[in-house]
Specification:
Helix content: over 70%
Oligomer: single chain
Number of helices: 16
Shape: globular
Order of helices and strands: HHHHHHHHHHHHHHHH
Largest sheet: none
Structural class: mainly alpha
Strand content: under 5%
């Protein structure tokens, strides 16, 4: 039992410094021990097994092993639901955390309705807990509200998504003002999500301001701990590029997009499974900006690279098909502009022969 606890803690610490592969190995070993212990004495060891499975899901997802990540999250939630039914005071906080993680894993698998339901349950629990003890539970409530905003947006419920994102950012601002070291990373995440929600509501100036603040925080954090914060910095830079483009500031948008792609290319070199999909997304946007700037040959080259990356990942991550379609549609448009209609038609024919599932969102 003590070894399993040490391994589980080691996995968390390794993840915090960006050593994802080692974190996954340590957590897998901990889960293996806890499974054996819980089989012999469930009452004593199931809580630790559930906690370790929840962490394991996070590490597997970061490694690009999303199907296994979902399985681990589902197993953790199943145990915590049972434990919380018997002792809510002891296990509801952990149940809420696991439901929130499960929502993310379900969303990654394209099961949006179930993801939204899991996160709504997590928010419900955390609101109740925060009402009784704000200092202990408001940080977790804010995290769940930010996740809820993402799921509501994916469900097309954008007004509710914006409300959730605003509530999350409000809590995180207050917490970060009192303790920047503890809460600035979460504030940056909330601000980045809020920027997206504000943009969807047509409030572009506010969206740009929120994302600029997020990038400022992530740059500072990544300077001190690149392994832990560069992935978030790249995501925030990509979002910033979108907001700058919508504001008509194309040169600045291109700079932000290039920086995001540069970081993601470096990350993908070390861990292709985890970072190639995000790199491909950055390349599509970069190609779009390049094409708008008139450099069609470069736009075609960058689009082709993104298509190759998506094709490589489709076999293990079928939910990337909508993104591949988007990249191919852009590629066909660039080919048209380059006066290569036959090549453009070949691309469009493939898209037509490989349609999206009915519940996909491009």
């Amino acid at each position: 039992p003590a070894l399993a606890t040490s391994l589980s803690n080691l996995g968390i610490r390794l993840s915090e410094v960006g050593r994802g592969a080692e974190a996954l190995t340590a957590t897998e070993q901990a889960a293996e021990i806890y499974r054996r212990l819980a089989a012999g004495n469930p009452a004593a060891h199931e809580p630790d097994l559930a906690a370790t499975l929840s962490n394991l899901g996070n590490h597997l997802s970061q490694a690009g092993r999303r199907a296994e990540a979902l399985t681990a999250a589902e197993q953790a939630a199943e145990i915590y639901r049972r434990l919380a039914a018997g002792n809510p005071a002891a296990h509801e906080p952990d149940l809420a955390a696991t439901l929130s993680n499960l929502g993310i894993r379900l969303s990654q698998a394209g099961r949006q309705a179930e993801a939204l339901s899991a996160e709504q349950h997590a928010v419900e629990i955390r609101r109740r807990l925060a009402a009784g003890n704000p200092a202990a539970h408001e940080p977790a409530l804010a995290t769940s509200l930010a996740n809820l905003g993402n799921h509501l947006s994916q469900a097309g419920r954008r007004a509710e998504a914006l409300t959730a994102a605003e509530q999350a950012a409000e809590i995180h601002r207050r917490l970060a003002a009192g303790n920047p070291a503890a809460h600035e990373p979460a504030l940056a995440t909330s601000l980045s999500n809020l920027g997206i929600r504000l943009s969807q509501a047509g409030r572009q100036a506010e969206a740009l301001s929120a994302e600029q603040h997020a990038v400022e925080i992530y740059r500072r954090l990544a300077a001190g701990n690149p392994a832990a914060y560069e992935p978030d910095l790249a995501t925030s830079l990509a979002n910033l590029g979108n907001h700058l483009s919508q504001a008509g500031r194309r040169a600045e948008a291109l700079t932000a997009a290039e920086q995001a792609a540069e970081i993601r290319r470096r990350l993908a070199t070390g861990n292709p499974a985890a970072h190639e999909p995000a790199l491909a997304t950055s390349l599509v946007f970069l190609a779009m900006l390049t094409a708008m700037g008139g450099d069609l040959s470069e736009a075609l080259r960058v689009t082709a690279e993104s298509v190759e990356l998506y094709r490589r990942r489709i076999a293990t991550t079928p939910t990337l098909l909508p993104q591949l379609h988007a990249a191919l549609e852009l590629q066909a448009l660039v080919l048209d502009e380059l006066d290569r209609p036959e090549d453009a038609e070949t691309v469009r024919r493939w898209v037509g022969e490989n349609p999206l599932p009915p519940d996909s969102h491009n």
